């Protein structure tokens, strides 16, 4: 962190193709089809038809009766439906017919993927991070978080926000992807940025959060592996969640009664999951042996609230982030070093070493989605009090040139 890596180059221009955040097909930006606006109220237009591609993707015909998809080469933001002559701005993936928002088509190449072993805290993290982005952090950053499709909105409410944030119940363990929906939650996070020069207009830039709530172990099973490998290969940035309770030497540092650890399954060990993801990324980027990947990787210890208060005192992790709409680089370095020394103390130094060998650009984080130890299947008495959950994302925004860095102490 001392010698900051230069910001990442701008994402590949859309001429190189757009990766669908639902099925990960790479499609030419010139050949993205459109969906007719259809009928509404007194507006006449094409009648809904069963969208076979979409139904096959979701595995259900429910919600797949939609105005037809048509092609109009040229890659423009709008096109005229050849059947009803209405102008539409809705574009869809040619393979799976899921919506591809304009902001995404215009700056593809920023898919953020989330990975972690079973029990690492992924579902809880997704629930809380999205809520934070829609509220406090969104306001701070002047950023909007928009779900890219209606199923994402419904599933977020039903499976994440309602149980955890309203009813204060812990989320059920994620079923294996072999039986649960294979669909990710897809969001576009768009930030308004100041104009580059005095004469230009403010601009906005987006990243696409593609959140699969599946266990990293699922990469073992053949059926799911294909989709997940494509997911990982499509990732332009990765957030790895690591449960500190899975690091054997960390256990003495933990306060109070311990929840059950995931067990002795070597496949769910953080380093093995990170190694599998790394393999996928190396394949995609055709990395030579010894060459480090440029994909930014954020590795976060979850459930940091379980650490004994004594461990946190005097530490950077103890401070809350100032919340000023910039990335505080001094704070970032302090937290990075703190987590690194925790990893070494907990005999997980090989994790740090491995990351350093494989990635030119990685950063370490500590966070807590719940902010307290849950009791009897429910959120602790103080409610959900997230702590530094947004940090990995702020760092990624910074790496993508979407958030300025600052040293408030003027060092
Ligand atoms: N103390 C604490 N426990 C957490 C936190 N987040 C998750 N947990 C615990 O970890 C368990 C697994 O979390 P979950 O999000 O379901 O993990 P997933 O399998 O990766 O989706 C939950 O049931 C909680 O008991 C946190 O921020 N603090
Ligand atoms: Mg889960
Ligand atoms: Zn698709
Ligand atoms: Zn039409």
Automatic annotation (TrEMBL):
Protein name: 50S ribosome-binding GTPase
Residues in Double-GTPase domain copies: 110-314
Source organism of the structure: Actinomadura parmotrematis
């Amino acid at each position: 962190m001392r010698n900051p890596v230069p910001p990442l180059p701008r994402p590949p221009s859309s001429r190189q193709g757009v990766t669908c955040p639902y099925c990960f097909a790479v499609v030419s930006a010139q050949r993205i089809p459109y969906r007719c606006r259809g009928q509404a109220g007194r507006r006449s237009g094409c009648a809904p038809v069963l969208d076979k591609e979409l139904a096959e993707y979701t595995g259900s015909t429910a919600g797949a009766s939609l105005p037809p998809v048509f092609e109009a080469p040229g890659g423009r933001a709008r096109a005229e439906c050849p059947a009803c002559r209405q102008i539409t701005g809705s574009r869809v993936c040619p393979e799976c017919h899921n919506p591809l928002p304009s902001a995404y088509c215009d700056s593809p190449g920023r898919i953020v993927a989330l990975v972690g072993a079973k029990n690492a805290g992924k579902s809880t993290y997704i629930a809380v991070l999205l809520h934070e982005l829609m509220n406090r952090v969104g306001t701070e950053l002047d950023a909007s978080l928009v779900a890219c499709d209606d199923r994402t909105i419904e599933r977020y409410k039903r499976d994440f926000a309602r149980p955890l944030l309203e009813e204060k119940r812990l989320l059920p363990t994620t079923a294996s992807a072999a039986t649960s929906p294979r669909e990710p939650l897809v969001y576009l996070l768009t930030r308004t940025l100041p104009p580059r020069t005095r004469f230009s207009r403010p601009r906005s830039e987006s990243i696409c959060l593609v959140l699969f709530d599946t266990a990293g172990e699922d990469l073992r099973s053949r059926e799911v592996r294909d989709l997940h490998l494509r997911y990982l290969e499509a990732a332009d940035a990765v957030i790895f969640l690591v449960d500190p309770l899975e690091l054997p030497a960390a256990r003495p540092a933990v306060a109070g009664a311990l929840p059950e650890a995931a067990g002795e399954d070597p496949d769910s060990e953080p380093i093995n999951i990170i190694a599998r993801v790394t393999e996928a990324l190396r394949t995609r980027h055709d990395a030579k042996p010894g060459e480090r990947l440029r994909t930014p990787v954020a590795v976060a210890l979850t459930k940091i609230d379980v650490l004994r208060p004594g461990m946190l005192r005097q530490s950077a992790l103890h401070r809350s982030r100032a919340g000023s709409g910039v990335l505080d680089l001094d704070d970032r370095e302090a937290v990075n070093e703190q987590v690194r020394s925790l990893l070494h103390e907990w005999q997980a130094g090989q994790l740090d070493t491995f990351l350093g060998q494989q990635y030119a650009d990685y950063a370490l984080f500590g966070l807590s989605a719940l902010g307290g130890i849950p009791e009897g299947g429910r959120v602790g008495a103080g409610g959900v009090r997230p702590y530094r959950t947004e940090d990995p994302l702020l760092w990624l925004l910074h790496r993508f040139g979407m958030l300025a860095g600052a040293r408030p102490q003027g060092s």
